Amino acid sequence: MGRCLMNFWRRREINKILRVVILLLLVGSWLWSWVPVTEVISLDLLEDGQERIRIALITDLHSCFYGKEQSDLMKRIDKGEPDVIILAGDIFDDVQGDDNAKALIEQLVLKYPCYYTTGNHEYWSGRTQEIKDYLRERGVYVLAGDCEKITINGYVLDICGVDDPDYLSDQEWQQQISRAYADTEATHIKILVSHRPEKVSVYQQYDFDLILTGHAHGGQIGIPFIDRGVFAPDQGFLAEYASGSYALSNGSIMVVSRGLARESTPLPRYFNHPEIVMLELD
Questions:
Q1: pLDDT tens-digit series, residues 83-141
Q2: Per residue in 160-187, pLDDT tens?
Q3: Which of 22, 114, 135, 243 shows its CA 20 to 30 Å from the CA of 226?
């Protein structure tokens, strides 16, 4: 009897230890997954021997907090020495206050040319026009069916952008892309900024060199070793376009950022660091 009781007690103690270990692993992986990273993606789009162009892609901030005055993000951005900043939607949020988003914007515009398109949460806030007006007042280029040109290291970039399609019909949204594309030139590097990565069938109808997107949040819970996430909005389970770069059938390259959302999301990020994507065009 004594031996049986001893074995039972040992099993209970082992189970307690296992539960504690599992809990610590879950909490540890969650905290580790909150740490932002800089993901560098190199793309061969320039002539040999030319100085590279650096583009910082920032998406899905959702006005989350990254240190006082967003110092964590600014250090990462400055370290990458970008030539231009692309803000591809959901920089502001429909629930979180605007302070963190504005703190980042007001520092970026002092150092870099910035280009912005809306995301779905900015539309859900009901304050889209207010947000656009604020950004324009700060010197950000707000793209909504527009194309802006910038010269960097001797190359002309046509930076086009479209509103999030949440409050547009499919026809209205594609008309924005067509209107922006009409202002591009064949000899320029043609970039489309759009919040949604799932619209590949539309993007393939145009001859953009680069399409810069977000929205998928990396699938929220990353699946190690297969570069897929568990679930992405508007793509569902095991989303095909969740993070990284993708060669489309027409020759365009689409880049999807995992974004920077942390405390704004109802589900925690696991194995899925928030990120700034630094594109190096070589």
A1: 999 999 999 999 999 999 999 999 999 999 999 999 999 999 999 999 999 999 999 99
A2: 999 999 989 999 999 999 999 999 999 9
A3: 22
Check residue 264 and report its DSSP letter.
T
Contact assessment for residue 211 and residue 175, using Cβ atoms and an 8 Å cutoff: no
Give yes or no for a contact between 13 and 251, defined as CB atoms under 8 angstroms apart. no
| pLDDT value of residue 219 | 75
d(CA 193, CA 186): 18
Closest of 94, 109, 63, 41 to residue 253, by C-alpha:
41
* Residue type present at position 239: A
**How far is it, in rounded angstroms, from Cα 86 to Cα 179?**
20
* Predicted local distance difference test score (pLDDT) of residue 221: 76
Identify the three-state secondary structure at position 45: coil
Q: Give the other-Cβ count within 10 Å of 37's Cβ.
A: 12
pTM confidence score:
0.89
pLDDT grade for 11, boundaries at 50, 70 and 90: low
CATH topology of domain 37-281: Purple Acid Phosphatase; chain A, domain 2 (3.60.21)
Q: In which band, very low, low, confident or very high, does the pLDDT at 5 lie, cut at 50, 70 and 90?
A: very low
Contacts of 204 (CB under 8 A, 6+ apart): 248, 249, 250, 252
| DSSP per-residue string spanning 192-260 | EE-S-TT-HHHHTTS--SEEEE--SGGGSBEETTTTEESEETTTEET-SSSSEEEE-TTS-EEEE----
Task: Report the alpha-carbon distance of residue 56 to residue 156 in Å, rounded.
Answer: 17
